[in-house]
Amino acid sequence: MSRRRHIEPSSLLIWALFLLMEGSKSRSMEFAPQILDHPSNLVVRKDQPATMNCRAAGNPAPTIEWYRNGKSVKTSIDDATSQPTLLPDGSLFFLRLSQEKGKSDEGVYHCLARNHLGTAMSKNASLYLE
């Protein structure tokens, strides 16, 4: 007499869902941000464009913030006419650098990459106008 084991279909479904969830966890390993491309010092002529690089990795993808002389830089990713513009890769783009009294773009910049697992800060880079 052979004994056959009967497995309920609902048990198979639960087992399949478990395997799917475990597989997706291993593929989507979360990690804190890391700066991959730090900004570097720039010397640029007034009224010329410039880009300060900042590229970061993390999962979930980090948000990028910029600071000049320790103060937050107001940026826009949606408005290309905004000064300066945050590019999709995290870099900071200036269409025209200004050196007006009280509103100069010169300074020491750094970027921060953040997600819920942590924060990474880039090296400082100076932007000089000639």
Structure description:
The chain is mainly β. It has one helix and 13 strands, in the order αβββββββββββββ. Strands 2, 5, 6, 11, 12 and 13 form a six-stranded mixed sheet that branches. A three-stranded antiparallel sheet has the order 3-8-7, with no helix packed on it. It has a two-stranded antiparallel ribbon with strand order 1-4. The longest helix has 19 residues, at 9-27.
List the main descriptive attributes of the protein structure presented here.
130 residues; rod-shaped; six-stranded mixed sheet; single chain; three-stranded antiparallel sheet; mainly beta
Shape: rod-shaped
Would you tell me the structural class of the helices and strands?
mainly beta
Strand content: 35-45%
Sheet with most strands: 6 strands, mixed
How many helical elements?
1
Rg: 24 Å
Helix fraction by DSSP (H/I, runs of at least 4): 10-25%
Q: What series of H and E elements makes up the topology?
A: HEEEEEEEEEEEEE
